[in-house]
Amino acid sequence: MRFKETQRFRQPWIWLLVILTALPIYWPLFRQADSSPKGLSVVLLILHLLIVVLLLLTRLTVELDKRNLSYRFFPFHLKKKRFALSRIRSASIREFYPLKEKSFFGIHASTSSKSYHIKGNWGLQLEFTSGRFLLLGTQRPEELKKVLSELHIPEE
User: Fold this and answer.
1) So what's the pLDDT on residue 152?
2) pTM for this structure?
3) Cα 60 versus chain centre, distance
4) Are residues 90 and 132 in the same domain?
5) Is residue 23 domain-shared with residue 86, that is, in the same domain?
C-alpha cells in the first residue's frame, strides 16, 4: 500500500490578503508613473513579489510506503526527510487547531516536536522511538488512516 499527498497554499483568504497588502505598495508606483519610483517603494515591491513567489512555490509532500515515511516542505527542505517505519513507535490521525496549538500554518518546531502543515486541521501525529514527535498536515485523513492500518503501524 502506498500513500502520497501534496498540499499547496491555495486558500482564497491568503491570496486576498496578498492582494490587499499589494494595494498600498503598488498604488504609489502607479501614481509616480511620470517620475522614477522611490527607493522604499521598490524595496517593498521586490519584497512583496518574493513573498508571492514563495507562496506559489511552497508545498508539503508526504509519502508513505511499506518501508518508509518521507516528507518534504519545499523550498525549505531541498531533499526529502525519510524515516524507516521501524523508527515509528505510534501514529494516529488527529484533528488539531493551529491557532490554539500556536503553530498556525507552515513550520513549527520545539525541542521535542515539529509540525508541518499548509491547510486544514487534520494531521498525522507520529511518535518516534527516540521520543520525538512529528505532525504532518493532511487533507485526506480517512485514506491515510486506512494505509496506517494496512501497514500495521501502532496507533497512539
Assistant:
1) 86
2) 0.80
3) 5
4) yes
5) no
